[in-house]
Amino acid sequence: MEDNFYQDVIINPENVKDIIFLKSEFERCEFQSLNLLSLDLSMVIFQECIFINCDLSMAILNKTSFRKITFDDCKILGVRFDDCHPFLFSVSFKKCILDMSVFNALSLKKIFFSHCQLRETDFSDADMQDAVFDHCNLDLAIFENTNLSGADFITSFGYIIDPEINYVVKAKFSWPAAEGLLKKYRVFFE
If you average pLDDT over residues 91-102, what whole number do you get? Predict the structure, then answer.
């Protein structure tokens, strides 16, 4: 690991060819405008890093560590975050497309999504206490046995959440998007 340690480095298309990702550690690095499509990032450690305008779609994250990571304006389609190392897992997303990604059974307390598209994203069995979904599209997102206590959905839309199979105490919703709480009962409003 000592040979592949990067600290306070800006990684962009001009210098990415000099970077070794395999079993590397990145601390306080900034990744800018990179195509990391389908890249194997297994066992890589990212700590206090930011990804800006990157494509991480279908990236392989087997035992990858994300500790205090920010994704800004990134495309992250079909990524299995549930394969990541759970120790100190901490991520936030701003203006990202995370369609068909999986956060199954992760501890996501206080996770922050702002202006994100989360279509068909799987949050089953996740602990999402006090999560914030700020202006997010949650069309067909999967919430099953998810702890959403205190979660904020006030400005988001498209979600269907069954209160009988999810924990929603003190979660915040707004009308008319909150119709998604009653969808299974075939109750419609005009």
Answer: 98
Q: What is the dihedral of CA 18, 96, 138, 120, to 10 degrees?
A: -30
Higher pLDDT, 128 or 189: 128
- Summarize pLDDT for 64-73 with one digit per residue, the tens: 999 999 999 9
Instruction: Using alpha carbons, list the distances in angstroms from residue 60 to 37, 75, 143, 188.
Output: 9, 14, 23, 41
41 plus 127 within the same structural domain: no
Q: Which domain holds residue 73?
A: 1-97
For residues 19 and 33, state if they share a domain. Answer: yes
| CA dihedral over 100, 101, 105, 108, signed as positive or negative | negative
Tokens of 100: 């068909």
Which of 94, 16, 83, 87 minimizes the C-alpha distance to 47? 87
Whether 145 and 162 have beta carbons less than 8 Å apart is answered as: no
Whether residues 70 and 91 fall in one domain: yes
CATH number at residue 127: 2.160.20.80
Residue 76 and residue 4 in one domain: yes
